[in-house]
Amino acid sequence: MTANELREELETELAWRQEELAFFKNQLNEIAENNKNKYRKGLILILYSHMEGYIKICLQTYIHYINSQELNRNDVSTGLMVASMHKEFIAYENLDRKYEIFRRELPEDARLHRLYRRVDFMENIEEFKCQKLVIDDNIVDTESNLWYIVLQKNLYKLGLPVDLFSDYHNDIDALVNRRNSIAHGNFHAGVTKSEFTNWETKVYGILSGVTMLIYDYANNKKYLNTANT
Length: 229
Fold this sequence. Notes:
This protein is mainly alpha-helical and 229 residues long.
């Protein structure tokens, strides 16, 4: 996959989401004025679902692009290297099970397991770094509630700047709150045209921003380990 193919895939994904939202917005023309605010409650649910869905697919597509480059772990940034070692870290943290990645035989005393695994891990760290880079796209987790902090965590996992959307912090959290209130039946009031327009503008800004970010990192190879370039 090339950087341009990545961008094309993302733009296609974003386009159908925008078209679907536009379709449901157009139905407002057929709804009585006194029911439009109530109808916009449903639009909020659709808007949020497309924000969460697109960001998840966008990050996973970036992972597929990185994997397609056939790199070794030590070729990429530390964040991506760590992302590719998710299995190893999970194994390291689970002291109740034995894994083939650990070569040192564990002692009978379970209290020594952690120490032995630390030694084993450090003795083989260079070998881990030289292995082929393969990132599991399941590391992207929006947790069914894409709060700002959840977005930051997912960006951080892939070595992307976590403060990119800091200007949208309050808007993202407010949208998640409103979506949850509507979905759980706790929000009885409708959504005004100005409220919806504000959130729609902010969401499109976020989705456009993450698209440009991913393309920039791919096109300019910002995922590479600068020490090796």
